[in-house]
Amino acid sequence: MFERVYLDNAATTRLDPAVLEEMLPFLTDDYGNASSIHSFGQTARAAVDKARHRVAALINARPAEIVFTSGGTESNNLAIRGSVESIRRKPSENEDHRPHLIVSAIEHPAVKMVCDDLSGISCDVTVIPVDESGVVDHRAVKDSIRENTVLVSIMAVNNEIGTIQPIADIGRAIRSRRDAGQRIWLHTDAVQAVGKMPVDVEELGCDLLSLSGHKIHGPKGIGALYVRRGVRLHPQNIGGRQERGNRGGTEPVAQIVGLGSAAEKASSSLIKTTERLRKLRDDFEDRVLESIPEAYLNGDRPRRVPNISNISFRGIEGEGLLINLDMQGFAVSTGAACSSGSIEPSPVIIALGRDDELARGAIRFSFSRFTTNDEVERLITALPRSVETLRSLSAGLAHK
Predict the structure, then answer these.
(1) Where are the beta strands (DSSP E) in the chain?
(2) How far apart are the first and last CA of the chain?
(3) Are residues 67 and 215 in the same domain?
(4) Among 265, 297, 320, residue at a domain's last position
(5) Do 101 and 77 share a structural domain?
(6) Are residues 287 and 223 located together in one domain of the fold?
(7) 366 backbone φψ class: left, alpha, beta (φ>0; ψ -120 to 50)
(8) Catalytic residue among 115, 123, 206, 338
(9) 321 is in which domain, residue-wise?
(10) 123 is catalytic
(11) What are 63-88's pLDDT values in tens digits?
(12) What's the predicted TM-score (pTM) here?
């Protein structure tokens, strides 16, 4: 029996055993409610406060600016819906009075679907295209800002192709509008950036930033939203005053502890891990592109996080290659895990200007600090055979 190889770390990561060790006491002995004032509650509250400091340190924020959520999707919803609803404007037939949102064409469904929903109710939404390398033009974002623009939401790193977006440039444009008296915030979905590259909310100039625990070897079911001091959001979870009124509900202490632990470990190993993964990924791509004809790298080669590689193979269906590799013990992806099961070509790859065939033949390989050189070497050996087999089958069917 072969040893399975997990290379879908952009979808989720394994829980770091050291993170689990820190979580365990809060699942067994220290099970108090962090909102209770007795000693059990005080122990839980101290653990939550420590985690808040650790998460804040990872992105250079103040602890009071960290709001714990159930994950990246809830953080995005709170940022976007919370911003719009905090304005307290009623829907109007006069479109100049409708809140205006700006997003990119390659946002994660956790942003895109929220904006689609709002656009059908009470908001106008402008979608900014990307170039052939998957990067947003910050000048196009700036030119799209209107007097009624209330929020710009551009992801820091794309989840399928790993491209890094010019958030700092966009942040400067928004600050200039705010300095002129316009109430406008910048949100960035940084779920794929945090722990994969340096993230500093002051350098980025963002007002809201989403992150998730299970993308950085923490537990599932926990994330955070950075909310810059002075930004007001309308809560989406109502039923308590937890998280300074931003999110009602009993704090999941063990998960919060796990997120804090994962954040600290991501910070301490960031430079070493990114250097190793960049070398591993670049070697993988060079050898795959050299050994497999009509294989095409998707995304901006230098301007990417080091853990994601997205390659299109002409003449095959990505789903077929995924299944073939899975049968050999390799776990990879055709795109966003939230879109698995979709028979449509990836909207992200289409947005790069690729044709349908290449969009359908795109595979995402994503690595982590637990990925070994031997695992990638095994994939490099298996991949050309798999592609050749599927192309031969496809050609045979075409001649029948």
Answers:
(1) 5-6, 66-69, 100-104, 124-128, 149-153, 185-189, 208-212, 223-227, 295-297, 308-313, 330-331, 362-366
(2) 36
(3) yes
(4) 265
(5) yes
(6) no
(7) beta
(8) 338
(9) 5-12+269-398
(10) no
(11) 999 999 999 999 999 999 999 998 86
(12) 0.94
